[in-house]
Amino acid sequence: MTPTYDFVMSRSKPKCAMLRMAFRARHTFDARARSSVRKNRTYMTKFNELNLNPKVLKAIEEAGYETPTPIQEGAIPPALEGRDVLGIAQTGTGKTASFTLPMITLLARGRARARMPRSLVLCPTRELAAQVAENFDTYSKHLKLTKALLIGGVSFKEQEALIDRGVDVLIATPGRLLDHFERGKLLLTGVQIMVVDEADRMLDMGFIPDIERIFSLTPFTRQTLFFSATMASEIERITDTFLSAPARIEVARQATASETIEQGVVMFKGGRRDREASAKRKVLRALIDAEGDKCTNAIIFCNRKTDVDICAKSLKKYGYDAAAIHGDLDQSQRTKTLDGFRDGSLRLLVASDVAARGLDVPSVSHVFNFDVPSHAEDYVHRIGRTGRAGRDGKAITICTGRDEKALDAIEKLIQKDIPRLDNPVKDEPKPAEKPERKSKPSDGKKSDSKKTDRKKDKEPRGRSRRDDNGSTVVGMGDHLPNFIALSFDERRTG
Fold first, then answer.
1. Which range among 67-76, 218-227, 239-248, 481-490 shows the weakest confidence by mean pLDDT?
2. How large a percentage of the chain has pLDDT more than 70?
3. Mean pLDDT over all residues of the chain?
4. How many C-beta atoms lie closer than 10 Å to residue 453's C-beta?
5. Nearest alpha-carbon partner for 352 in 205, 450, 455
6. At the N or C end, where does the chain have fewer CB atoms within 10 A?
């Protein structure tokens, strides 16, 4: 039996505030009680114990899943109760299904109206939005629910046609969502469930004004779900504005990487600045070669889009199967590249951080950080692309002297030292030094031997030279014109 608390109302505090405090204290105690019970369990929870819709359970079974992950087990029950949820878990633990499954179950009843979606999922990148859409298709195939995907790089007319028919689930990036709203093609007053996926990135990377505006356009009575792999304290304070007494589900220490990922860092000294990038790419190729057949496929992360293109072209030049993906590419090209990487026809994907969030390819064997990420949290998301779903993975980072501060921040965040690896590229022998030049005579005059050598080995200085007969020729062909040979007096009188 779960103990309860009795609270005595004080005149110094409003009744509603005291009720809120009581509710939060009760929930905290209950969560701890449930946690202690789970530790003593001798069995695993099954999906059919989570009160999901039978048709959703059928889709889960057909997808080959039976047991929920810890984040799914913790987040689905309060979400089904209609409560706000703050879910924090490392990458690759099934956060997408944690909100997709209860959302589909709650939306199974009811009907969508034109231009008024019943639920909204906000994602920071097109790739993550597309992944959420795929999850929705997988788990709702036995239910008559509709969806629309609003992302950049796709025709407005096609998206508007879907919205006009009415959608149960609207999955969007903030910019494209507001574009449709500004055009008068979308109303958010019917949103019952709102999900913010990768909440820390959405709030931390310039999306705050857009997020606040979108929230202001939705009903106050909506249910809100926040999910992320990291949740810094300052970002968590922002979430208090959007969530009401949320059930906080944290299945692992914040900002931790999966234990199935083997990590390492190569300390790289580039030497000359103009040759550093080339030498660094050589180290990358050596690291890939050193992994051999174990590196079945890999994602290579660069900080800048220009470096993504340069690195991909360099790998292709040396015979590696590589392609680039970043935010400046057309959506069709990005989709084609990702599809090739997923189906195994592309081995190496060179990416900016646009691919670090939400790229779900379960069998990525390696991640190479060509650059140390400037934000420590991005490291967790990058290496989380490998070692997913219980598989083993490996993440190797190349660190220059300028990146050591960023590396220290990463090690503080993940609370562990990353093992140092040997540089696979051995130092090349330095070129032989040139012999020292002989010092000039102290009196400042040129040596006689130098003059003699110049006379013997070289033609006279200036434009003049000598022909085969020894005559002087002054740079106008092989003969000396008569008017030049004449003296000044002869030319004047003549």
1. 481-490
2. 73
3. 79
4. 11
5. 205
6. N
pLDDT band with cut points at 50, 70 and 90 for residue 326: confident
* Cα 174 to Cα 122: distance, rounded to the nearest angstrom: 7
What are the tens digits of pLDDT across the range 334-354?
888 988 998 999 999 999 886
Q: Are 241 and 296 found together in one domain?
A: no
Q: pTM of whole model > 0.85? A: no
Question: Given the structure tokens 């969508």, which residue do they identify?
Answer: 112
**CA torsion, points 155, 158, 161, 167, in degrees to nearest 10?**
-100
- Please indicate, yes or no, if residue 430 is contained in any of the structural domains: no
Beta bridge partners of 349: 299, 323
Judgement on whether residues 132 and 116 belong to the same structural domain of the protein: yes
User: How far is CA 432 from each of CA 216, 422, 428, 429, rounded to the nearest angstrom?
Assistant: 70, 27, 12, 9
Domain range enclosing 294: 261-421
Instruction: Indicate if 410 and 377 belong to the same structural domain.
Output: yes
Question: Of 392, 421, 450, at which residue does a domain stop?
Answer: 421
Do residue 233 and residue 274 come from a single domain?
A: no
Q: Is residue 198 part of a domain?
A: yes
Burial class of residue 54, CB neighbours in 10 A (0-12, 13-18, 19+): exposed
Residue 379 and residue 473 share a domain: no
